[in-house]
Amino acid sequence: MDEHIIRLYDINGREAIQINGRWLDCLGYGDLATQADSLGIAQAFTHSPKIQLYNKVLSLVKETRDESEEPVDLIPCDCLLCLKGLPKTFRSGDGKTIQIWEERLKIIIFIIISQQNKHAKELENELQERGFKKNSDIKKVLGTKRSYVHSNEILYFLETHSSLLNINLDENWKATLPTSKEFISGFDKFNLKGYWTLSSFDDPFSSSYNFSSNSNATLPIKKKKNVDNNNNNIDIINVDNNNDQLTYISSKKACGGITKSGKPCAKIGFCSYHMIRRADNTFEMSPSLNNINSDDSDEDIDTDSGSDEYESVDGEKDKKRTRSNSFQNDKSNKKQDHKQLKNYISEKTFKLRELEKKILDNFNFYRFIVKFEQYGYRLPREFVRFIALKVICDKTGETNDSTILQPPKLVEEFWIQVILTSLEYNKLLQIINVEKIRYDPDLLFDETSIQRKRYEKTIKLYKKYFKFDKFDSEIWKENYLLE
Prior knowledge:
By secondary structure, the protein is α+β, with helices and mostly antiparallel strands. Among the domains are: 6-198, no CATH class; 346-465, no CATH class. The protein has helices at 29-38, 50-67, 80-84, 98-129, 135-142, 151-160, 162-165, 187-190, 315-362, 378-396, 409-420, 422-432, 448-465; strands at residues 6-11, 14-19, 22-23, 75-76, 149-150, 183-185, 195-198, 223-227, 233-238, 245-248, 275-277, 283-285. The chain starts with 5 loop residues before the first strand and ends in an 18-residue tail after the last helix.
């Protein structure tokens, strides 16, 4: 049965392609590879850089349209904004405060999710007509995130409907999402960043609709970040055009870490992606993946920060305070150690994920998968994850784990193929930004029991840092080196 449904829309004069209810221009690499697979694109292309994969999908869609016996008419956009116009409560122009963007995004997300649900019902009916009977089969094709919207889809909506919205797209509207109780993150549900839904689905087109901000933030949306010597984040706010400034020091500080877009991260409070919480409850910036070889990326956690604040002229009071602080520290040591370990694992998992994505997005596995074609994209993915474990463990020095990590047999064979092609291997090293990845073939001559211990250690690390993903037991065989 044909599993893909392609629709072509006209959104304010712009042609938009939708595959199985998802806008092509909004798809990340993983979703793009999934849609490419459903379209029957050869497996080799699913390991190409994203832009090549996107162009292949786009070319296939255009070929299908050109080969159609009947002319294909573009479907006019059927979102509530295009059908009904702007709600009276929507404020156009510049969004000077987070509250304005909070109100806008609540309306925009409502419109996007309403359209997603509408399209999902239409596509379900079409799939049933094609012979799909089980809900599980239909959900597999259409996905299960229809009640959530990705930030890429919000941006796409803003860009394609900018002439109707009349708003400034340069404003950092994403800072509004984590600061308002109106929006609920989908991270806990999907273990993926960027998905959001509404806490309540009040219809903004209803005459009884009344928006009142539930945001704790009172800062303008336009702001510059500055960091003082004590690692306190200060928000410098432009009040008007007369160069007057209002300095505000928030009780819950924004992260401020530089993101891939070059803008500071607006996450309020502790950010597990850019910061590490020290034992004394202060923050330090986590090492950047772009500086994997930097010698100063691993700093000791400062457990004595701020002790000079307790100096006193009265020696006896100082001793009492010291004893009291010591008691409190002993009492909370276990709790702090647990938090520190949890944050360390979270920060390390993020670095592994970032490196995995960096390799998959930029390295072409086409020439290597011919021999392993029956495994599709799975084997290159597992190879990349193993390499990421080696590189990150190399850097962090976690008891020299990288020197004893042992991959499964298939990953080992795939790795050898890459190494033997020196030009491609050098490209891989450049992407990762390392001089070499240690490979010692003599380790394969160790006793089987020793190799088995290394393999068990590798699986343990894999499950620790990729625990939310399905474990590929066909590649990572549990009984390897036991047979």
